[in-house]
Amino acid sequence: MTDQDLLQRYNYDEFVPEKFEQWMRFDESPLPGSPAPDFPLWKMEDQSETRLSAIWSAHTFTIVEFGSFT
Amino acid sequence: MDALAEKVAEQGVGSIFLYTHEAHPGEHYPHLTSMEQKFWHAAALREVYGLQRPILVDALDGACHRAYGSMPNMTWIFNRSGIPVYRSDWTDMHSVANAIDYFLDVAQRRRERERLAPFRVERLDYRSQDRDAFYAGLERNGPRAVREFREAFG
């Protein structure tokens, strides 16, 4: 799969099972208690880059809700 | 979730919203094709829904979201060492509040020198379903989002 293919498949253009079901992979996600993968993220306010690790290391516990406008 | 975030902030708990992809794209908020559009949609989320927590935006290819299971509205809790201590395939304030209360109590017991060993537990939690609010959100996305959801789930 090329980067462009991935971008188009991940950002699917219509909510139909053949396009959204492939992304429902919660069972394959990291188990609680195991080290979590780190990724770059961007702050909405100023678009500056940070990392998920910078977020979780700032507090005793950090709640991360994933979602979008739609 | 904003109310919970405000409440637990006093106890050293951070809260963020991580912007992913459009689960129900429509005419008004279509699928994402650029980071510029992704930032714009994230700003609209704050403006329209009044979200108060810091919003962090994932890469356009959803690298972070995909690594954590890419569910549309899941919640994770991490400890300071980057270990996930809670993962939920959907977001429910009561479930998250219950988990945070438990973990804060664990932290207190550790401070009191109690010897503790971790173990994994699975549990079925329950979330309230506000179908009217959900459909109002779909209509905000555009008529196509309503139609496609009805066709997928009736």
Describe this entry's structure for a reader.
The complex is a heterodimer of chains A (70) and B (154). Chain A is α+β, with helices and mostly antiparallel strands. Helices cover 24% and strands 20% of the residues of chain A. Chain A has one domain. A two-stranded antiparallel sheet of chain A has the order 1-2. The mean pLDDT of chain A is 96. Chain B has a single domain (2-129), classed as Glutaredoxin (3-Layer(aba) Sandwich). Chain B contains six helices and four strands; from the N terminus they run αβαβαββααα. Chain B has helices at residues 2-9, 35-49, 63-67, 93-111, 131-141, 143-153; strands at residues 13-19, 55-57, 75-79, 84-88. The two termini of chain B are 28 Å apart. The relative contact order of chain B is 0.16. The chains are: A alpha+beta (70), B alpha+beta (154). At the A-B interface, α1, β1, α3 and β3 of A face α1, β1, α2, β2 and α3 of B.
What would the CATH topology of chain B be? Glutaredoxin
Number of strands of chain A: 3
List the quaternary state of the chains. heterodimer
* Helical amount of chain A: 10-25%
Q: Over all CA atoms, what is the radius of gyration of chain A? A: 15 Å
Order of helices and strands of chain B: HEHEHEEHHH
Number of distinct helices of chain A: 3
Low-pLDDT parts of chain B are: none
The level of helicity of chain B is 40-55%
- Report the major sheet of chain B: 2 strands, parallel
Q: How would you summarize what this structure contains?
A:
Chain A has 70 residues and is α+β, with helices and mostly antiparallel strands. Chain A has helices spanning 3-10, 17-20, 52-56, and strands at residues 40-43, 49-51, 61-67. The chains are: A alpha+beta (70), B alpha+beta (154).
